Amino acid sequence: MIALPIECYRAIFNNLRYNYKELFSCILVNRQWCRIIIPILWSDSKKHFKNVKLIEMFLLTLNAKEQALLIPFKITLPNQRKPLFEYTSYITSVNNDLYHGVSNLIQDRKYETGDELRNAINCSLISMFLRTSKNLEYLSLNEVICNQLIYENLYENTTITSIDLDTLNNIFRSKAID
Q1: DSSP designation for 61
Q2: Of 20, 64, 115, 136, which is most buried, counting CB atoms within 10 Å of its CB?
Q3: The pTM is what?
């Protein structure tokens, strides 16, 4: 039996990129297929950002600085094992659906609603995406009051080609921008 080169598998699976059911089935075939398909599935995860389970999985990826933003709000972080893959490294776009997902999480967990809590979670997640995403090209900051951590990670990120800023909702500090 002759094995196909990985590039051929990538081309085949890329043609199935919007057929999630088929791709999920293919993940179970073997490790090689799984390693090829996971980046394809997660490159367009923005469609699923409204899902509370996905937001909880993202919270598992926060580092100490990002978690520190949540301490004043007594947020209970999920106590599950870290995911098998670093899924956030494959994400190419973070849009406004993330902010709806955070709102869904707050509502689902019955946290006290408020703009400060929502912004703290959004800032933590945006900072984490900027730090971990190796392919992040688009970022929407429309519903986030940016903090120093976001600016630091934004400065370090070299893959972003488009940022959507709503200056009415963002507070820009000249020192952070510098």
Answers
A1: T
A2: 136
A3: 0.81
